[in-house]
Amino acid sequence: MDIAQIYAKYAKDLNFDDLPQEVVDHSKKLILDIMGNDIGGYEWMDSGPSIVNGIREINRGNSGSTVIATGESMAPEWASFANASMAHSLDYDNHHAKGVIHAGGSVVNCALAAAEENNSNGKELITSVVIGYEIACRLAMALGPHSSHEMGFHPTGTCSTFSGSAIIGRSRKMSEEEIVNAMGLNGSQAAGSMQYVVNGAWNKRTHPGINTHSSFIAATLAQSGFIGAAEVFEGKQGFLQGYALRPIPENATKTLGHSYETLENAIKPFPLCRYNHQTLDLVLDYQREYNVETSKISSILIHMPTYGVQLCGSPIELKRNPKSPVDAQFSGCFAAALALTQEKADMQTFTNILNTGMSSEFKRLLSITDIQQADDLDAIHPEFWPGRVTLTIDGEDVELYGKHMRGERERPMSIEEVQEKFRDLSPNHDESKRKEVFEVINNLENATIDDLLSPLRK
């Protein structure tokens, strides 16, 4: 069987009862995390309302699935577009380190929309979410670490196009052949240009939404008899060859059905680029313990893996002078100054700094921060996402090093911490409604999709 056939069979055959309890429990946290990000991307970012307003015009009153942030109903393909776009807007959505992909915005929102469309129960929703993560994350690993980024493609915007059609195929009880044909068409839909980095454009935020929408189109056409490309992944002109410099095709199916990449998806505790999290973790812990007077700090040196430097440390003058929320999210200098001056880095704190303006001391800390690549960090990345921060305090160097970040499998966030993150992201939602959602999530395998979403619907 080729890769698409293996994926289609996996999507059809996986049963909820096959899932280890650890996978079920983590899947619930991933679902809640993405639902919070759906709301947060609308509440906290200027792009959120423009996304919903634009899609509302295109949708033209069709219904079927819920827009999590507003409670309105749209056609499944458009509701998932809106939700998934907003889920990635804050760069706060869960992240798979080995694949360097934010799969959750697409996977969870595609599964939610498909579940509503087909009136699924909680067990089916969880199973669909696992199917989506397992396929999307393995495809990202098959592209080879960073080798798709280097070609100008964003795996978050490409890989989940295929997993989405598997999710929809499962929910609609499509045949394996139909799912394979849908994935064949997905090969002509995967996009995700990295050109957005030039001006901090909003394109990146829509990548998960574009691919969930594409997944619904492909699945629907396949159900109508559409024939998609054969060997869409491993073919000479297929996805892996066209979107990666150094593809590793065996990673696409390696251990599928025997281990769970779902468990490797880390929930982000901070609303900044994941490459900044090690800096935040290290400096926050240090500052909370020692409460250093920041005026005593004369230099800050941050070491990151190469790709982290490219995203969050170069050009250094831009990173020392962020002009927008996106600039700040992708600035290691901003992360260090935030941790040192605020001793916390939640959404409210992050936004307040941007809205009220950076203090003179904050700006001074930005100016004395440098970010450099380190060979020892590259040697273990992306299997691990290590980092090192050296603070020069009163002329003496204090070196901080971390290998595992909070939110990863080795340092997981509790369900209570994910609930608190949900609260932070949904400032305008009623607490009683939040608690209803939390109660359903905690017992999702014995609930329905209506139980989960009814507190958030209009």
Automatic annotation (TrEMBL):
GO MF annotation terms: lyase activity
InterPro entries from the UniProt entry: MmgE/PrpD_sf (IPR036148), MmgE/PrpD_sf_1 (IPR042183), MmgE/PrpD_sf_2 (IPR042188), MmgE_PrpD (IPR005656), MmgE_PrpD_C (IPR045337), MmgE_PrpD_N (IPR045336)
Domain MmgE/PrpD N-terminal as annotated: residue spans: 8-243
Cleavable signal peptide: none
Residues covered by the MmgE/PrpD C-terminal domain: 270-442
Superkingdom, natural source: Bacteria
SUPFAM superfamilies found in the cross-reference section: 2-methylcitrate dehydratase PrpD (SSF103378)
Pfam family, one: MmgE_PrpD_C
Protein family according to the UniProt entry: Belongs to the PrpD family.
Name of the protein this chain belongs to: MmgE/PrpD family protein
Organism, as annotated: PS1 clade bacterium
